[in-house]
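thought: fold this chain, then report.
action: predict
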Amino acid sequence: MHNTVNVAQSNANRAPKKQASVNHLKWLVREWRGGELALLLVSLILAVTIVSGVAGFADRLQRGIVGESNKFLAADLVLKTPRALAPQVVSRVPDSVSQALVVEFRSMIVAGESLQLASIKAVSAGYPLKGELAISDMPFGDVYNTDAVPVSGEAWLDSRLFPLMGLQVGDSFQLGELTLRATRALVSEPDRGSSFYGMGPRVLINVDDMARSGVVQPGSLVDYRYLFAGEQSALASVKARLESALTQSDRWEQLDESQPRIAKTLERAERFLLLAGSFGVALAGVAVALTARRYSQRHLDTVAVMKALGAVSAQITRLYVGNIVLLALLATALGWGLGMAVQNTLFALIKDLVGFTPPAGTLRPLVAGAVTATLCVLAFALPPILRLRHVPPLRVLRRDIGNENLSAGVSALLGIGGLFLLMLWYTQSLVLVSAVLAGIVVVLGLAGALVLRLFSNLRRWAAGAGGVVRLALSAMYRRRQANAFQVVSLALALMVLLCIIAARSSLLKEWELQLPADTPNHFLVNIAPDQVESVDEWFTQQGIRSAGLYPMVRGRLVEINGEALEKIPDIDANRSSVNREINLSWSDALPEDNELVAGQWWESAPAQLPRVSVEIEFAERLGLELGSRVFFKIGGLPLEAEVTSLRKLSWDSMRPNFFLLFEPGVLENYPSSSITSFHLEKADKVVLNDLLRRFPTITLIEMDAVIEQARTVVAQVSAALELVLTLIIACALLVGVANIQASLDSRLHENAILRTLGASRQLIRSCLLAEFALIGVSAGVLAAIGAEITLYIVQTRLLDMSANWHPLFWVVAPIGAGLVVAVSGWWFCRAVIASPPLQVLRRL
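observation:
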């Protein structure tokens, strides 16, 4: 009996909660017909979709690139050194860390009468520690992966070496004093390109065969890479144990050090996407705020009646806040699903660029979407909803009371505060968020003031117009503030989209068109001194004009004005552009694409120290000026020189350029090779076969292929950005729809009066279409102006190009925006046309 009473009491306690949930759902279904809740739901869904999609994409991309970048190294940590470490040094590595050795150098291989310069890679067992080798049993055959390495006496050759050397699988060739048998075709290694010696056709051998070949001698140019894999704590121990045995030429490599461009590009892309997503969330939040304000205004009378019938403020709050919470939960769930679709679409658009299968998603984007929905509700939706609890019952008799709303300033501050918290959480950078948010506010403020000033003149322009145009201009003037915000927000999103479309489709093409027709598109490097005259003769025989053969000596800058680089506080001695061997050259005359900006070219009078000319940006980076003394190590030999001039280079000339040019007579006695560039039409590329046959040790770089690859990268990245910007434009259109909803009552009253005075439905429809089309055209024109200005700055300041205008922008943007805004505006204003005037006037 006692248990039965307890159960009954428990059921009685749960009954009100169940009834409350049912009431919320019934109320929500009934309120759905008003239209505001649907718009509120769509706005929240878009906000959650953008954030969960972009945040999830950035998170998966980052984790995928980190994993792939470790494969690019074939390890978690790499020690790069020009010398072999002593066995007792290597023995310091703890047993918990896996290790392998890679030695790379260039050497001739011989098969019968065929000779070929190849990149030799000698590897130990266990290589690679990350990733796998891709090989095939026949040249250009079916590819498969393996974690094995060639056994001693065997070699795996690049597929193109087999026909080039006249070899078959199983044939032998000579490497120095060693005979090796070609048993597999080498397709790819995970760390290919980690060394300069990785250029050209490759041969993979066992590290035990390297010493037996006799190729590597004291003074040989060899790249040793010690690979390590393990936990971060163990890798930190490896660094600490080996540090005392390292020299200035030795360098540790990890993801951020060996692939700095990948790390930086990832960081910038992630921040751009998240900030762009934040702008979309801001627009969606504005739509939420406008919709919530109209929703609360439409329920003032309902709340007054409920209070007159005995409802208290707490019940009112629970009812309306409960509806908003239910909408937020539904929007979060739907937004999560659409966000996953956005992630998969983004990865599909850039699948050729990333080159790996993205890892599985995590809970981070789901949490980000939920937090976004929560902050949107708290910052944008709840403030006007909570005002309903203050509506007095007396409003039933006096409709002029209870209309108080939050001021526009307070609403704006709440929205900006919520957006600031969202962006700060996404980017984890207070400085970046503050700068971007301030920029958005300034741009919107200036553009808004300009558009508002323009709209303020509409009354005067309307006086001189007639018919439909006059009515449309008058309607735009009456709602000029809301229309100005709609124009600016849509124009900003369209402007960014136009800039990205231009970068994707025409910017690289315009850059290429502005280059002279004979701009070099091929480079020859590693030309030996005894080949210079023969190569020059070959150019003459083929009728090809080269940019000139420039000698090149490798040297390391170690001191400036008697102070070591690592001790100069304003210089990062570990930067790849500083802590490496630099290409040095000499020239009697100033190269034709160089401009002297300070100092003088070589004088006839001999100087106390050898003279060197420095590129201006390189000099600024290192704090060099006229009279600075620089100290180099070239092949272990010292060289001190004085800076006597500064030069500005034209890097896009595609000619050999050097940071440091010495006067003649300084570097001639050091080991050197030469470099040149030349222009060759695509139809004439067949002559390159003759060049490579006659000079097999020379390395050819085809720049036209590099430019084509850059175009592909730009196209794929732009396609991904366009998807995100399309969502942002959808948010901007939602602001327009919310503006229409907010003005729906006044439009109904205005057009009911016009209908009463004899206006036809066709006239009302034409006025609405004209009004919304003018708003869209204004946004399109403003977007075209902004895009042209932005592209002008990019072309003239960043790319050093002459400006190119884009007349298609001035046609597509205004017409496209006008059509989209006109159609969407007319669709959501159908009630204005369809409602009988008598029915509308009776509500007044």
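thought: worth noting. The chain is about 55% helix and 15% strand.
final: tokens above.
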